[in-house]
Design brief:
The chain is of the alpha/beta class. The chain contains 11 helices and 22 strands. Strands 1-4-5-6-9-10-11-12 form an 8-stranded parallel barrel, surrounded by 4 helices. Helix 5 (about 145-165) packs parallel to helix 6 (about 200-215) and helix 8 (about 265-280) packs parallel to helix 10 (about 320-335). The longest helix has 21 residues, at about 145-165. The radius of gyration is 25 Å and the shape is globular.
């Protein structure tokens, strides 16, 4: 979110969008079937300053350490920003967390002591870096380009060695923060009239090499942009930095996504799916959040308003906050090949404490900003204004298991009898109408319905032993949509049958969702049913049924 905190008060965004393509190296995606390796992270970069200024946190009425509370609710990762020298010449902190090396190291040690993993977010600046400003550290301001490359390499290498020598090897690092307009302006700037990515690519190359020369492959490297719903931005930027002759040895594409500012969930899903395949990289949301109220905790202004609520599409409530994160989690789990690694919730601990603001007077002077010093994020935290943990902290629990067996139709190869699926055929419909074939959405195989003659059939599973509760059914589909009936359905769960007609596939694979299926009898039948004319077709893949 960075200086949207003050600059949302003035709102600077940089965007330039073009197309292209290039692939890079593979990094292993999530492996665990129980989703225990799904990242449920928290960016707690404000925590030290909040604590020093008197902030206190509670879970079920008991005073506890905020990081312990987050971890006990399931958070398994922290993200910590790092500034080079966030002080003026008199030693006054710029504020906003005061995230110098010692502060960041201390928080990393606290997280590691709880068994959490650590992502270090190198801003490559003395203060907030985002698309609106990527200022060089003061000490680097007058370096020549050649000196800047050497200094950047040495800074990354030395800092990673400093972490290592203090017993912390970060599990991940970001090289830059929301870098859609580049880094280290003006040498590494892109966008607007600047279409040459060569210097940005070379600077990233030097920074990445600094990390690798300190810790090798022990730390995964993230490149991070804002505006997660904009596929054109991501294609323009990653095509640009990967086509300049420098092999950028990074592992993960990180995205910022807030539904009130960065497009729809469908926009995000399309972008995640596309860039994970196009660049052969894992993807994760490294910044996100939503409001639990429209009230303003410190009375000094808020980032989230009723307009944002209307655009975001979820109620500004604990329930709305939870629903948004459930849907975001589902988007990540729907990235093919398990390449959606997880999320980081931004500033869940930023409760309204006097002085724990986006900056100090020294910080304002440094960036020449006359905005009001405040906490504009307090209604997007995961603690209420008094520091009590909200029920929405349940978002940090590991995702519920997909209860569909053979959900991607990978168990049998080419077959007319896919394992774990029941098949029904009307009289006169050939059993060869249903088959598994290649050219799948995810993996090697998909399920296909097709015959040259009119046909009626279904493929379904009856799930039993279910806990009562609310479930979501999703599937990825392609169809010509000319059938009399072609629908995804759920029934026999204690309520009325729900179904959705499958949409025409004029843009390839479509995700179909049946939400809020309230199981009350311990079972549910889910499937695909069609009444079709000869030549009509439908493909199905990546079917999921999960408890919310």
């Amino acid at each position: 979110m960075k200086r949207k905190l003050s600059k949302l008060l003035s709102g600077v965004m940089v965007a330039a969008m073009m197309l292209g393509g290039m692939q890079t190296d593979v990094f292993a995606a999530r492996q665990n079937e129980d989703y225990s390796d799904f990242i449920r992270g928290a960016d707690v970069s404000m925590l030290n300053e909040i604590e020093e200024l008197g902030g206190r946190f509670y879970d079920n009425g008991t005073k506890k350490d905020a990081l312990t509370i987050l971890n006990s609710h399931g958070s398994n990762y922290v993200r910590l920003r790092l500034w080079v020298d966030p002080y003026d010449e008199n030693g006054n902190s710029y504020g906003g967390g005061g995230n110098d090396f010692e502060t960041t190291l201390a928080m990393a040690k606290r997280a590691k002591a709880l068994g959490m993993k650590v992502l270090i977010d190198f801003h490559l600046s003395d203060y907030w870096a985002d698309p609106g400003t990527q200022s060089k550290p003061k000490a680097w301001a007058n370096l020549s380009y050649e000196e800047l490359k050497t200094t950047l390499y040495q800074y990354m290498k030395d800092t990673m060695n400093d972490f290592k020598n203090n017993g912390i090897i970060p599990d991940m690092v970001q090289v830059g923060n929301e870098t859609s307009s580049g880094i280290l302006w003006d040498d590494g700037k892109v966008g607007g009239d600047i279409t040459d990515f060569t210097q940005l690519s070379e600077l990233l190359y030097q920074a990445i090499n600094g990390v690798r020369d300190a810790v090798g492959d022990q730390t995964k490297i993230v490149l991070h942009l804002d505006n997660g719903g904009s596929n054109s931005l991501y294609r323009w930027w990653f095509d640009g930095v990967t086509s300049c002759g420098y092999t950028l040895d990074f592992d993960i594409i990180g995205l910022t996504y807030y539904p009130m500012w960065h497009g729809t969930m469908d926009d995000l899903q399309y972008n995640l799916n596309d860039i994970s395949e196009r660049y052969d990289k894992d993807v994760m949301i490294v910044e996100t959040a939503y409001a639990f109220t429209l009230e303003d905790g410190d009375g000094l202004g808020s980032s989230f308003s009723s307009t944002d609520e209307a655009i975001g599409g979820y109620e500004a409530s604990v329930e709305g906050q939870t629903a948004f994160m459930n849907d975001l989690e589902a988007v990540l789990l729907n990235v093919p090949e398990n390449r959606g690694l997880g999320f980081f919730y931004w500033a869940p601990e930023w409760i309204p404490v006097e002085g724990a603001y986006w900056g100090t007077e020294a910080g304002k002077e440094y960036i020449d900003d006359d905005g009001i010093l405040s906490n504009p994020w307090d209604n997007l935290a995961l603690f209420d204004f008094n520091g009590n943990a909200l029920d929405s902290m349940s978002m940090f629990e590991a995702p519920s298991k997909n209860l569909i067996q053979n959900s991607g139709f990978e168990s049998d190869g080419y077959t007319n009898t896919p394992s774990n699926w029941n098949l029904w055929f009307a009289d006169g419909t050939a059993e060869s109408t249903i088959k598994t074939e290649g050219n799948a959405f995810d993996g090697d195989y998909k399920l296909t319905f097709w015959s040259e003659n009119d046909y009626s059939c279904s493929a379904y599973q009856t799930l039993t032993g279910l806990e009562d509760g609310t479930y979501t059914l999703t599937a990825w589909v392609m169809t010509n949509a000319e059938q009399d009936i072609c629908q995804l359905y759920a029934k026999n769960y204690g309520g009325d049958e729900v179904n959705q007609t499958l949409p025409i596939s004029d843009i390839g694979w479509n995700k179909v969702v049946l939400d809020n299926i309230k199981v009350t009898n311990g079972q549910c039948e889910v499937g695909i049913y069609t009444v079709a004319n000869g030549g009509d077709w439908c493909n199905i893949d990546h079917v999921s049924f999960r408890k919310k």
